[in-house]
């Protein structure tokens, strides 16, 4: 079916006419179209996120600069759960650490800790980087906290 109101040029008259006729399309057709649009948007967003996660791993098989960019995109997206954002900060910290940018790594480990203060690895690796930068007291405190959270860490 076609809708007479769809041929009019004024938006208000279109709206009024559509309301009077209830709809140009059957509700089933509109629901299907809405479902397809939502699915396409969701799949597109998921594909973008999965590609960022694919390169934000903290593993040495991926170029560190690529990891920094991917992790940064995840962090800045604002769409990640707190725990996932903490992992993105942690993985980016590992990349900075491997480029010997210890101050940036420490800052990212600190953000990971702020978002998830119960992960012993975050404290351990921040402690190791603090040790590398000469912050002995900070290193000892972080390593002690890591051991408190996980007595088996580092074994």
Structure in words:
With 155 residues, the protein is mostly helical. 72% of the residues lie in helices and 0% in strands. It has seven helices and no strands. Helix 3 runs antiparallel to helix 4 (82-98), helix 4 (82-98) packs antiparallel against helix 5 and helix 5 (102-115) runs antiparallel to helix 6.
Write a brief caption for the model:
The protein has helices at 11-21, 27-55, 64-77, 82-98, 102-115, 120-132, 136-149. It has 155 residues and is mainly alpha-helical.
Gross morphology is globular
Name the helix and strand elements from N-terminus to C-terminus, one letter apiece.
Answer: HHHHHHH
Number of helices: 7
| Average predicted confidence as pLDDT | 78
| Spatial extent as radius of gyration | 25 Å
Which percent range fits the helix content? over 70%
Oligomeric category:
single chain
Biggest sheet character: none
| Fraction of residues in β-strands | under 5%
* pLDDT < 50 stretches: 1-49
Number of strands: 0
Structural class by sheet pairing and helices: mainly alpha
- The N- and C-terminal alpha carbons lie at a distance of 72 Å
Secondary-structure map:
Layout: H1 11-21, H2 27-55, H3 64-77, H4 82-98, H5 102-115, H6 120-132, H7 136-149
Considering the chains and any ligands shown, give keywords for the structure:
disordered N terminus, 155 residues, globular, single chain, mainly alpha, 7 helices, 72% helix
